[in-house]
Amino acid sequence: MLPFGLIVLSLLNQLLMLLAFADATLPPGDPPRVIVRDMSLGKTVVGSQGELLRGATVAYFKFRRETVGQPGYPAIDYATDPAFWDRMSETGINAVRLVFFDGWQRSHGDPNVDPFRPFPFTSLSPADALLQGAATQAEANEISRSDRRNMLRDFDTIVNLAAERNIYLMINYHDTTGYKDPNFITGLQPGQRKFSYTEGQSYLYQFWNRIAPRYANRTHVFYELMNEPVGFHPNNYTADDVFQMSRLFKRVRLLAPDTHLSLATFTTPASFNNRTMLRIAVELDQSGVDFTNASIAFHPYDISNLPHVVQPIAQTMRRYPVINTEQGLPASLKLSEEEPDAPGYFYHLLGSRTMERMNVSWFAWNTFETDQFENVWTDIFQADAILKNYYWGTELMLAEAMSRLENSMNPEAQAAYMMAKPLFDLYTNDPNAELPE
């Protein structure tokens, strides 16, 4: 076998010479769907050519939408700003996580303002509007229609902004340590900012019943069904939690048969007992979740005195696809004390470096507006990768070149693609990679 460096050089030369046969630009339309790829260390979610996803995060929520331009708030809505998307595209990003933050807004409030009313959130139903102060049923009906219309308009804009820049988009329903409907009857106690939960899941299902079919045929879009649904470790996931996640999976799968679905979304991979990340994945598998087009999501936060080790991720990805949907910063670099610690593994400063080492796709947290994006993505994640020689820019350039070759109508370009693809696969998956002990 050729030395790895020569393989890479051969691939580069091959593509640069043969791109002359391909179309000058990528074909119009959405990027092809993400796929599950089984590599030397295990399975993850990747772009259509097999390239890892390196993502940023944007947010949608009603309060943000309605405060844009007001004193003390952002002057523009960065989630729908073409210039912001251009900047993300320029800096090595090929995926974006769209956080629907109104799930979190709905489960939190200020007891000093009104202990029985949450923070402002998108009214997906008239009942939501009545809860937030609509005086009549007619007013509630109009508010919910307007909120849904505004949400879908902005989501459509974001979906199109991503497609126009050849960026994958993962839509995420976002609450923390919960996914059910809040108990507004008991309300909040003094000092308490999060409502307890009932057994209902109306808001979660209303969201996915609207979103899942709407973007089912947009091939660059995939879904993360819940965010950190259980606090805080895999061992805290009960049999009922597994059942509810599987139930939602089957509902969304019915509405979006070909869309990749990520689920579970652990706050941390670490467990206190044998109900591990892998154990929960097995139970989801046994409950009917088909992992041929689905994955286990996780966040690598270090939130307890358990060892911060990579083994739970490594064990899981040998059997099931995994994806890191929220990569935070280590304590020495985090932007606020509210952020949990997210150091890398193997003595890496950054978790992003570990993800690159393990061939696991990942999304950066706290990139919601320009200053955050530049501070977190450009000055930390990207800069560290360039400095320490693990930056992925060449891989993304080659993936785009591969797409051009694959989609060309020129027979010689098609032949070039067939020759180049095995080299690209080898370049993006070192067969000699091993996890440190």
From TrEMBL:
GO molecular function, a single term: beta-glucosidase activity
Keywords: Carbohydrate metabolism, Cellulose degradation, Glycosidase, Hydrolase, Polysaccharide degradation
Statement: the UniProt record of this protein carries the keyword Transit peptide: no
InterPro entries: GH, Glyco_hydro_5, Glyco_hydro_5_CS, Glycosyl_hydrolase_5
Domain called Glycoside hydrolase family: residue spans: 78-366
GO CC, one annotated term: cell surface
Domain of life per record: Bacteria
Single GO BP term: cellulose catabolic process
Signal peptide as annotated in the record: none
Protein's UniProt keywords contain Hydrolase: yes
Pfam family of the protein (one): Cellulase
Entry similarity comment: Belongs to the glycosyl hydrolase 5 (cellulase A) family.
Full protein name: Cellulase (Glycosyl hydrolase family 5)
Species of the source: Rubripirellula obstinata
